[in-house]
Predict the structure.
Amino acid sequence: MAVAPTPASSAPESPSRASADILGYIIYTHSQYSRRAGSASGYSGPGDLRVISPDGSGEAQLTIGPANDFEPAFSPDSFQVAFSSDRANRKAGITDLYVVKVDGSGLRRLTHGADTGAVAWSPDGSRLVVDDRKGLLVVPAAGGRAERGLKSPKNRVDHSPTWTADGTHFLFTRAVLQKGRVVSESIWSAAADGTDAHRLVGGKGKMLFSAQPTVSPDGNIIAWVVSTNRGSAIYMADLYFGTLGNVSKFVEVKGRWFEGPTFAPDGSALAVTRSYRSAARGSELLAYDLPGGEFSRILSVSRGTFSAPSWSN
């Protein structure tokens, strides 16, 4: 379960204009294709964390198996990465929240038996919000007692949180369950203490499955993924004090699915992964210019899955 930055084995795609002039790095999860994982998981095996420049150069591996490391998030100062991992309890598959320096040193475990998932740093870097089996958990970045940010109601699962730019609220996905099956997803907002939880968009009509919100660095725009059985789309809207305006479809794809949109530090581009349902058919890490939407392929793999990209400052 080593943590060490090493050159990755797969070669990056050639850079293109949409990401060539943007600073920072993108960290993401690379899950290897695995027949042992079975069709229920899309033949997607355990993940490791990798870092790459937006122009497709300098790919490096931050964590090395056999643990399943996933949902990485750069700290606001870009010196640390938070992520979830089953490295302490692989047999049971229980995951916890970890933080590591970008050079691979100083690994710290912040939760114990929480069964964590997606994580996001507060803008000042002092706190993290992460989804767990009970809802959303707010964890001090320096370690210490975690607080329940939001408890999910019965037959609801709250996941994929992100903070607003001023750190006063977080946005998240709320899934509705019927007989253990997800029947809808919508984007919600809540104050950082868990109060004033309300739906922003999705959960019905053409946006029945709306998930994975992300907020632009200036706090003025929200992007999220809308999925159907036929494919997925990225939508965007203006964010006004907990309400949305000018909702529009930014890009759509058939037969493949977007995951994990993340804004560039200057707000000039949006990175996202695009994959088939089966890891046997491969995956891509993409960037789209904003507002024009010029397409850019940062990296692709013929087998395996990319997910949960996070852009450093």
Summary: Residues 17-20 form the longest helix (4 residues). The chain is about 0% helix and 55% strand. The chain has one domain: 3-311.
